[in-house]
């Protein structure tokens, strides 16, 4: 329940969360007879019961850590008196999935581009992808000149540069190739120019083999070492791509044609209470209409994986979730790192204390949708419902993976703010009014409104914005020219 100075989520909780900066001596509205013993910043936790040393601290109805010392009710609960209890141990029992959320009675439509393979695009753009970092600037020059030349004929010409594609081995090179091949297959790319150097490990011919045959017809390639003037030749190839892509027209399409990527970055203590549950409603709306939602950031579900496992469509999916989470924990421990080395300094300043707390808030973005598939890094979605995708928590790496997997809109929640944008339209959802007011050039939607108007009103407003963006309305990141990719580097460099 909520009041004007704090929010209390679950009757089992031993802490409430401050909705504004609170002073010592202030009475807590959501718990009778509690007076704050010290100042508590917005997004930070307040003990609503006495918590014994070593006892679990409860939020969202689940343990988020243990008390390092006795905590009296009314006290600030944070890293000075609470610690993670997360370990690398697994062990979960399979249970059939509970019923998903009820589908919307009248889901909205959007104006999108229906591709020949049946997928829907929210943009009709030309993407220029360098195979190797050596020609990153060449790719950018081609895209910049082509965008000026063809403005208005397509929705944009964009280069997505990166420093990889050579001096990589084995799985590391395969990962780079998989991401680029998946981006080249994306429905939002009405045409793709691959720009290679010629001598790199990530050879163009091998990369094209990983692009599905049905997408290869809209792909052109350029080897800079073999070209006379690589910029002019690249522009000629983009001209050809634009001629074909410009024939596409927007048409009304059902909500179930969307592929929704969900992501959080720069989270604060309100993210798991406002913006993330709101995005969860969007996951439910899209999957309930027969569409697809993708959740990633696997290290940021540690401590909350049981909530996703409980929604596995079947035993095989349950076991795939378990393998993915346990494998990621092993990735940490094999490098001598604890699985709990999270939240970030910004998260902590915003009120998040442990990874368990952060994860329990982060998985709210998945709503109640049934998990129907689990994908490796660089793979593409194929099943309706909620897909769990292998990628780390890093904002740029995970959002690139969401784009490559086929997301046509990304919902990105944040309590601290970030200007980053990605290959597909990225809607920034603030967790609080202050961020939305301070950074209107970054933020598209004020998720803090759910504390004033309720979750239903907020969900209706955000769903309307999604339909508008899918129909062509620019996001803040698009207006700012924020369009980036980042590839997950895991192996040795030669």
From TrEMBL:
Its EC number is 4.2.1.7. It is an enzyme of class 4 (lyase). Transmembrane segments: none annotated. It holds the Pfam family SAF. Gene3D superfamilies: 2.30.130.110. InterPro entries: GD_AH_C, GD_AH_second, SAF, SAF_UxaA/GarD, UxaA_altronate/galactarate_dh. Residues 13-83 form the SAF domain. GO terms for biological process: D-galacturonate catabolic process. SMART domains: SAF (SM00858). This is Altronate hydrolase. It comes from Sphingopyxis panaciterrulae.
